[in-house]
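cache lookup: miss for this entity combination. No prior model stored, computing from scratch. Input as submitted by user K.M.:
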Amino acid sequence: MKAPRQSDVARLAGVSQSAVSRVVSGDIDRIPAETQERIRAAVKELGYVPNAAARNLRNKRNRLLGVHTFEAVFPHARDDFYFEFLLGIEERAEEIGYDLVLFTSTGTSDGRRRIYRDGTNRLNLADGTVLLGAATDREELARLWHDGYLFVHIGRREVAGAEIPCIIPDYVSAADRLVTSLAERGHRHFAYLHSGIEQEAYADRRAGYRNAIERLGLHDRSPGFRGEPELTEEWLVGMASGPETAVVAETIGLAEQLRIGLAARGLSIPADLSVAVLEGSGDESGQRWDCLVVPRKEIGRLAIDALVARMENPDEEPVSRLVACELVAGETVAVPPQSKE
Amino acid sequence: MKAPRQSDVARLAGVSQSAVSRVVSGDIDRIPAETQERIRAAVKELGYVPNAAARNLRNKRNRLLGVHTFEAVFPHARDDFYFEFLLGIEERAEEIGYDLVLFTSTGTSDGRRRIYRDGTNRLNLADGTVLLGAATDREELARLWHDGYLFVHIGRREVAGAEIPCIIPDYVSAADRLVTSLAERGHRHFAYLHSGIEQEAYADRRAGYRNAIERLGLHDRSPGFRGEPELTEEWLVGMASGPETAVVAETIGLAEQLRIGLAARGLSIPADLSVAVLEGSGDESGQRWDCLVVPRKEIGRLAIDALVARMENPDEEPVSRLVACELVAGETVAVPPQSKE
DNA sequence: CCAGAGTGCTCATACGTATGAACGTGCAGC
DNA sequence: GCTGCACGTTCATACGTATGAGCACTCTGG
């Protein structure tokens, strides 16, 4: 009942274990067809299957790629957060013949997931790992980097003293282009709705926004820009009476709040105010916001490719990669109202 | 840059490799606290992390569980087919400290996935595997069984000469109870809408239906029951004029067709005909069918448990397990119309 | 008829870990 | 002062594979 080994096959075929190994793993330059046949027949008869652990130990290669998220995957997959990434990851892994390990064993009682648990790094079971998730633990990232472990991170992550290779949705450029296109439609006075989230992805949006505002000589009066995430009454009043004709919101949620707040004052989008969102809007059938599209599936695929590239070229400097985000038109941007011209 | 091994730690701590192994893996009965301290310090200093491959080779245990589907997972996950199963699988694996391997490398050009590819069985990378999917390949299942590989299948699968351990939604009982509850509301004449799918899960539904019909002495006139899956004009006519007051449909799709066919004749559900479906209806906001609920998440969890149980008790006979499905009331069942009494 | 090259295969070893057996030391008991 | 034992540690080995080096043999060309 025990799984047959190469030596069992060898005995049956009347050759040595190394001959079997050569045939099984394709190193057959000096093995005549007839012997190969004999060995293959024996392999088949015994139902021999290579032992992954042994191969691994010997080769340092697994054809196994890890996926680590700092929270459970599937619950979130449903709200589309991880979903498209996984789709791309799975698709690409399948194409190039790798299996995927979902690191689930690393869960702690508080629902977070750790890479290092009592000193063990489960990740090194895989040849390399794609990390993702909003709740990235920077300390662990730093340690992983210092250990020389092979990984890429989806989304930009800045960690002092470590050069994390990332696949980065280009929010800087997307935000810049979004503002630019609003300016082209005549908007000069902008406000920015700040989510309060302190994370690279949001810093990038803010940078892109600021870039465009300055480059084009536009005017900005943003409560969020100065760091207050809430839509206060005062702000809404200011917005209604002030010169602003366009608002750039970081999230759909903020935009929705804004719409409600405006409606309460008898103002509507986009007639009175144009609103664009720096986030993909999904397919939900509500308001069709002018927004951007993060090519998540593509990013998943690229992450796998980056990982494999690094595996094949261990000496090369790891490098991050920007991925462009498209802007999509919705129904929430128009030319500025005449009343404010 | 190379990862430190136990022997490196040992040298630094001034002990032998085996002492390190003992401390690292918790076999410390005869190692005094002071030595442990020294070793732990060395582990920390070098950033030692156990090599998973070597451990696996030595232990024959991986703490890796496989998930194999005969089609790509994620595309289908979205329509909820795999989703809840995966949710349960991930959840339970996390709870008991296992990682998951998604077998993606086994894809073939035709989109199907194979377990055995040029003789190699990738699955044995994991300690055991959960198999699922509509498109189960029975030959591979049989071979896997004969190879003595450890697995469980989600959903009943019958393969000649092999006793596949399955986690089975109890469609037999659910169908029986469904008919029973219809009978309790006064229905005596039934028809059954047959999907034409030849698979155990549907055979079970049919068996349960038939059981109840016979046990309760009810009347059945089912085109589907005799094997024709289509809703023909004749059948609809027969249904409208015949004595039937209740229809049991295998799928939501069939039920929808039926509703449209009836509407075209001016008949409505449930006023003229009660309809219940032997399938979960999901959350879509359309018609709220009387139907059953397959506890998918629970089944995913049970599959993991069954797998682990078999790992821990290799000698015990593998055994399949039935999981009860609840019936949920919708808006498509009523008492029989007076006109047909 | 010998040097040299090529062919078909095997030997031996390393990968990193876990663990039963064994070894040496110190100490208690008689 | 010898026996026996507990303690702390190391030895030696096995897990299954891949591969460079090496061996025996055959053939070719000069």
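stored under new cache key. The first helix of chain A runs from residue 6 to 13.
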